């Protein structure tokens, strides 16, 4: 869709919205289409495509005929769009309701649904002015989706397209190709599950995303109809929790303190003794793939002994990592532009959607600086000015100057004085409704938000505003975000609120040691139900992030925290804070592993022909990079610096050799 088509669709929409009796095709051809329509046949096709596009955006293009005349007669048939067509109902929100809405919209910060949540938030801001609210102290929950597969499945599910993928079957331990009609996607027991109809098994099935062994392929030419009123959360609630099993693991003496803490027994009672220099531990687990990912990252420091399924899962990951490290290296080239996040290439359809949000947003937010408007919409100033240039040239066909959209940005502050009935935002899309409503449901796991009634009341308001699209939000369910250790979280929150210093005893898995520190806590945040707090560490003399489940002791030390300290940047908090002495590492990611570029805040990326990525990532500690490569089992490898690539490859081959591979 070239820019001219975007402008034409916008003008067509304005014309059909602002006519009471309707406009004939001949009138539209003379005024809206002018010289771009060609002959009668090509114009007819273009007009039908444009009507279909407007209906795709949710606008009901009505056909009006005089009594006794047929709709097949283009000379007498007229077209119009009702004033209320596809308009979002007005939603009045209290400050407390805005608070939970903001938190719900931020949950999907790095997922594909993050863009949908931001769009929905802007529509609400154009329907009910955002009041000044303060987020609860130390509460920044987020949802970490299961990589690229999650985004592809959500897109296919909402478009109702089947998908295919390779899957490691739990019953056979073999890779099997599956073709599935995706009905719902949800988190349960710390794992993401896909529920849908398996066309090969000809029955409904559940699939754990951790067992996907290939990228997801969307069968865009096929469609299906999901069951009516399907609710993934209700379906997953019926799933029994995976049984608690015990694995035998040989651990190098004096190493892996975190794994040793979870051991339920030592070497007593085992008929086979470990090799010299190792201790045999019993470790409990529920998901073999989750434990295999962890053990693969430990390399020669940990060897799975039993059960055989676990041994096979670890060796499979190490073999995939070794094979990828040995594969031919692609040419390493990057664009000069820094990475701006996981954003797909924008189309003119995206531009038109943005314009339909932009006009009502400006009506309700007069005088914003143009840079602030561009930031709110996630575009550059140049892209925004291109949008505004198209808008000010759009209006009623053959109209006077007063019949055009009137937008000015003198002194870089944007004002709109003529909106031509575009002052109300369009209804939520399915993705937008799912992003907000699923986010609100997820926040029920935080007692400080669930109390007071704001969460319940705003959910009911959004359900009413979303209509049919809101009913389809049952196809998505987020994870529990409540912390396992509520007492530790409350202690950190109190310290953040009172600006108090804490004494911390902390287990660092990368250094494999326990240390004591004095820290000034600044904020709390989470990924799913794993909670972190950002603090100034007086030992490291810098900002650091600490996982609550690795805190062994925590208590106030009686000292006040420094009043001059502030959290690093703004929302969202980053797990990895770059420093000047970091090492820039070039990695190659498969299509399955492209989400790691966002997880580790890649500064530059370059797409590869196979759908993978080259990425430049800054690491403060490079000693753990072999663990990073092994953990992801063939989804990532180090390319540069070459010495790090060689070290990683040698470490993984040594790890594989310990299993006889």
Structure description:
The protein is globular and about 95 Å long. It has 661 residues and is an alpha+beta fold. The longest helix has 19 residues, at 308-326. It contains 21 helices and 25 strands. Strands 4, 5, 6, 7, 8 and 16 form a 6-stranded mixed sheet that branches. The protein has a 5-stranded antiparallel sheet with strand order 20-19-18-17-21. Strands 10-11-9-12 form a 4-stranded antiparallel sheet.
Please describe the topology of this protein:
Elements: H1 3-17, E1 23-24, H2 25-33, H3 40-56, E2 61-64, E3 78-81, H4 95-106, H5 112-127, H6 147-159, E4 163-168, E5 175-188, E6 191-198, E7 203-208, E8 217-218, H7 232-237, E9 245-252, H8 257-262, E10 263-265, E11 278-285, H9 288-298, E12 302-306, H10 308-326, H11 348-364, E13 368-369, H12 370-377, H13 381-392, E14 406-408, E15 413-418, H14 430-442, H15 447-450, H16 454-466, H17 468-471, E16 476-477, H18 486-498, E17 500-508, E18 513-527, E19 530-537, E20 542-547, E21 551-560, E22 583-589, H19 596-599, E23 604-607, E24 613-619, H20 625-631, E25 636-640, H21 642-657
Parallel strand pairs: 5-16
Antiparallel strand pairs: 1-3, 2-3, 4-5, 4-8, 5-6, 6-7, 9-11, 9-12, 10-11, 13-15, 14-15, 17-18, 17-21, 18-19, 19-20, 22-24, 22-25, 23-24
